[in-house]
């Protein structure tokens, strides 16, 4: 059994409120939302972070980004949304499995944190 939380969600060992599932990507609601809409989009293949994924499989990186946009559209985020990849400790990455945050449903400020 994998110790990676997101691998366990992808594998069905841990339940999640899914928004989308394909053979390559799973999207599910964040358990600690930072916006009215906060969905995580993860590849079904484990990569530690966005750089590792884009180096190993740049096509998958593109498909994950496209899936994040599809999630935003499915959630009615017509007024706008943010897609965020946190990388490393200083970048705020809490789970070492690459994931995109799709945030929307409110105006976003800058800088984010």
Number of strands: 5
Strand content: 15-25%
Major beta sheet, specifics?
Answer: 5 strands, antiparallel
Instruction: Give the radius of gyration.
Output: 13 Å
Counting DSSP H or I runs of 4 or more residues, the number of helices is 3
**Order of helices and strands, N to C?**
HEEEHHEE
Q: Quickly give the structural class.
A: alpha+beta
Name of the CATH class = Alpha Beta
CATH superfamily: HIT-like
Based on the coordinates given, report the CATH architecture: 2-Layer Sandwich
Low-confidence stretches: none
CATH topology: HIT family, subunit A
Give the strand order, joined by hyphens, for the main sheet: 1-2-3-5-4
Shape: globular
What is the percent of helical residues? 25-40%
Number of domains: 1
> What's the mean pLDDT score?
96
Measured distance between first and last alpha carbons: 35 Å
Summed up:
This protein is an alpha+beta fold and 113 residues long.
3D structure, described in words:
This protein is α+β, with helices and mostly antiparallel strands. The protein has a single domain (about 5-105), classed as 2-Layer Sandwich (HIT family, subunit A). It has 3 helices and 5 strands; from the N terminus they run H-E-E-E-H-H-E-E. It has a 5-stranded antiparallel β-sheet, covered by helices on one side. Strand 2 and strand 3 (about 35-45) form a beta hairpin. Helix 2 packs across helix 3.
């Amino acid at each position: 059994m994998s110790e990676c939380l997101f691998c366990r969600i992808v594998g069905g060992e841990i339940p999640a409120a899914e928004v989308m599932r394909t053979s390559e990507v799973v999207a599910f609601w964040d358990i600690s939302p930072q916006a009215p809409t906060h969905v995580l989009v993860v590849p079904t293949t484990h990569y530690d972070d966005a750089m590792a994924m884009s180096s190993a499989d740049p096509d998958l990186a593109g498909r994950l980004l496209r899936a994040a946009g599809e999630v935003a559209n499915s959630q009615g985020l017509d007024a706008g949304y943010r897609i965020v990849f946190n990388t490393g400790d200083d970048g705020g990455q809490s789970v070492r499995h690459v994931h995109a945050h799709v945030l929307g449903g409110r105006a976003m400020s800058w800088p984010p944190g």
